[in-house]
Amino acid sequence: KEIFLKDYKAPDYAFEKVDLRFELGEEKTFVTSNIKVLPQSSDASAPLILDGENLKLVTLKINGSSVPEDNFKIGARKLHLTSLPSSAFELEIVTEIEPQNNTSLEGLYKSTGNFCTQCEAEGFRKITYFQDRPDVMSKFTTRIEADKKLYPVLLGNGNLVDEGELSDGKHYAVWEDPWTKPCYLFALVAGQLVSHDDTFTTMSGRKVALRIWTPPQDIPKTAHAMKSLQLAMKWDEEVFGLEYDLDLFNIVAVPDFNMGAMENKSLNIFNSRLVLASPETATDADYAAIEGVIGHEYFHNWTGNRVTCRDWFQLSLKEGLTVFRDQEFSSDMGSRGVKRIADVSRLRISQFSQDAGPMAHPVRPHSYIKMDNFYTVTVYEKGAEVVRMYQTLLGKAGFRKGMDLYFKRHDGQAVTCEEFLAAMFDANQVKFPTFPLWYAQAGTPTLSVTTSYDSDAQTFTIKCKQEVPATPGQPKKEPMLLPLAVGLLDSHGEDMRLTSVKDGASLHNLTSANGDFTTTAVLHVDKAEQEFTFVDILEKPVPSLLRNFSAPVRLVSDVTNDDLFFLLAHDSDQFNRWEAGQTLSRKLMLDLISAEQKGETLSVNSAFIEGIRSTMTNSSLDKEFVAKCLSLPGESEIADLMDVADPDAIHNVRRFVIKKIAASLREELLKMVEANRSLAAYDPSHEHRARRSLKNICLGYLASLDEPEITELLVNEFKNATNMTDQVSALAAICQNPGDARSQALSDFYEQWKEDALVINKWLALQAMSDVPGNVEHVRGLLEHPAFDIRNPNKVYSLIGGFCASAVNFHAKDGSGYKFLADIVVQLDQLNPQVASRMVSAFSRWRRFDEERQALSRAQLERITSMNGLSDNVFEIASKSLAS
Ligand code: ARG
Ligand code: ZN
């Protein structure tokens, strides 16, 4: 069942053209697929093997005549055809499917009465028998027939070339996609939808029709998505010279969707939470996520669709690259520094912990059981870091040269990560022999740095040691090239000019030919141990290491606390300025945790409080950046740094520090709230978003004090809020403390929003994530609430995913959290294996906890793996978790 990269074989048959006909029905849907097949192999007797799942084969014809029974064989997941013509032939397959009963939400399914599809990675095989692999690229036409009243809108890929009436109240539409594509980019939508229409004129002057489709009542919430799409189209032209290649671009919002969104050619399908927004119902974070994902899916038109993947092991070829592109887009639209901080936090919290656990895999995995399990933070976010490293090594202009060459060589092809690497290096005439290892080696490298200043020689030396840890199946690792961006601060906190650096025997001049000097040097670290020496350093500097997080590594350095406070106050690199504060917070919390475990009394030193005070009150800083600086590292981030994670001690210590800060800075926090409150109409611009984020984090601190006067303030903030950002932040703050104010606010919020499913998901998540002891019973109760529906992935992610995010409750000592999650996984797996598998992943770090907890979670994992009819999806995650 396991599939290996090394077993890749090119297909024996090409599918030149595919004509599909869908007869959509309430009970049965018929799919007729007409394929022009071209034999490719020298072996004329090669069988044609088609994938197919949950299909009923109705007829099977070659060149118009039924295929004799001896010439085909149907298995549970394959259709084998033999004795085939040796030259081009026509294959016609009719299958019957039941989209109305498809709860897996892959293939063709129904969501709130409308038909829609999700084919990536391997969903097309649930529609018809096909070579369901990305290196089979064809020209598709799609004819859709359906009841006109129930399904007035019929959408497919490409251009609408025909439409009309049929008998029995039916109608039809024919769509033709002029671009060849793999079947995972196929899409179809049929239903009662209306569109928000606008246009975009491309750089060559073509006018493209843009349409965002939703149920009628949601149209007012599509303005932000439309604007984001137009900005994304413009940005891709300006930054990469990439223009849209059709006259129509459709986006459809559907409420039931496993993932975020899907880049189907000219017919993107989105989870509605990533399209719909209004100031009253969506937060600043929602607005930002919509902008980013609209961009992401649009950018796939070039990085994914025009150039696609040879096989699914290459997924990061399109995803890592497209995430990098959407990160850059969002940086250009908002604050670059804050975006980088958010992206790195996410990488460290989710990806570093994946890389250290049983599911650790390289950016290009070597094997998988179920591909859907590899749509991971490693393939996406670490993959984006790998792409970013090319840019750090080659420079922006060099990176652009590489992109241009990549498209010049591979437009219209299905390729591998090697091809991307070759285009980047060839375009810049460089060779970095150890860089390809980033695609093959799992695990987060540790980069240990020690520094020394020689006042006589006026040199500053940086000693690096790099180590890539063993991961499942990969005991031995090699050092790989990582760019280490370094700045040196003088005693005034200014960046020193860096003139040259010695790397072993060679001296590198850092001043450019035209005399421009640099203040950040990019060191090429590619050996297990290596030394770099900066010359002409007139005083002992404070080093700013790994600026802008120039490589996805764990940095361990000998920088002192004094240096960190200095960097927090002065570093010109925004990321490292924030990181200095985070490093101080992590050290503080780890120290307090060991004190807590020994039963000692806890205290926070005044230097730490002063560091926070001066950052908070520094009016020269961007408020959104200040809000980031005020956010302490999360509980899971701290847990990952401990030998044996102790969720209770971590939680107590983190709460202790928060309360300490709140008590010490009470007046400043209140002033911040006053100064940054606004009752004016919602303004999504950076300035106002920044103001809100700072005010709301201050409210969170104040809430920890649990004083009646503060509660009153919070309740007023909640009641007077003019937008969802402020309303839900106040609600979250109130919810920190059990009591009447909490129950009242929760019930008011529910009454206000019960008709809006996306808002109610916030209400579910907020309760689920609560750290109130014994919350598992409350969450079990919510399973029965009308607001919950286990068939809707968003609701599962809010309620179940939310619950697992509360470490104290999920890892409760009595095992009640583990049992709860296993109960859900068992039930969910029958309905939707992809979502069940994402939920079961919460168990994957079970070995990080004490023995009693290990025994309790192991028992639940064993219960899951022993289940009858378990999906491959859940089996893979649960069994790999147990094995490691
Ligand atoms: N290609 C989509 C995106 O990143 C995600 C599709 C995920 N599908 C899945 N079955 N895991 O934009
Ligand atoms: Zn993507």
Short description:
By secondary structure, this protein is an alpha+beta fold. The protein is built from 26 helices and 33 strands.
Task: Describe the 3D structure.
- It is globular and about 85 Å long.
- Helix content is 40%, strand content 21%.
- Strands 6-5-9-3-2-12-15-14 form an 8-stranded mixed beta sheet, with no helix packed on it.
- The protein is built from 26 helices and 33 strands.
- A hairpin with a 3-residue loop joins strand 7 and strand 8.
- With 884 residues, the protein is α+β, with helices and mostly antiparallel strands.
- The mean pLDDT is 98.
- Helix 8 packs antiparallel against helix 9.
- Bound molecules: arginine and zinc ion.
- The site of arginine has 11 residues, from strand 20 and helix 2.
What brief labels describe this structure?
884 residues; alpha+beta; 8-stranded mixed beta sheet; 6-stranded mixed beta sheet; globular; binds arginine; binds zinc ion
Write the layout of secondary structure elements.
Layout: E1 3-4, E2 13-23, E3 29-39, E4 48-51, E5 56-62, E6 65-66, E7 72-74, E8 78-81, E9 89-97, E10 107-111, E11 114-118, E12 139-147, E13 153-156, E14 159-165, E15 170-176, E16 188-191, E17 194-201, E18 207-214, H1 223-240, E19 248-254, E20 261-262, E21 267-271, H2 284-299, E22 308-309, H3 315-333, H4 336-355, E23 367-368, H5 377-410, E24 414-415, H6 417-428, H7 437-440, E25 446-454, E26 459-467, E27 482-489, E28 500-503, E29 506-509, E30 521-525, E31 529-535, E32 542-545, E33 554-557, H8 561-570, H9 574-597, H10 606-616, H11 623-630, H12 635-639, H13 647-664, H14 666-676, H15 686-703, H16 708-720, H17 724-735, H18 740-753, H19 757-768, H20 775-782, H21 793-804, H22 807-810, H23 816-831, H24 833-840, H25 851-865, H26 872-883
Parallel strand pairs: 2-12, 18-19, 19-21, 22-24, 25-33
Antiparallel strand pairs: 1-23, 2-3, 3-9, 4-8, 5-6, 5-9, 7-8, 10-11, 12-15, 13-16, 14-15, 17-18, 20-21, 25-26, 26-31, 27-30, 27-32, 28-29, 28-31
The structure holds arginine (ARG) and zinc ion (ZN).
Arginine is lined by residues 120-121, 259, 261-263, 296-297, 319, 372, 375.
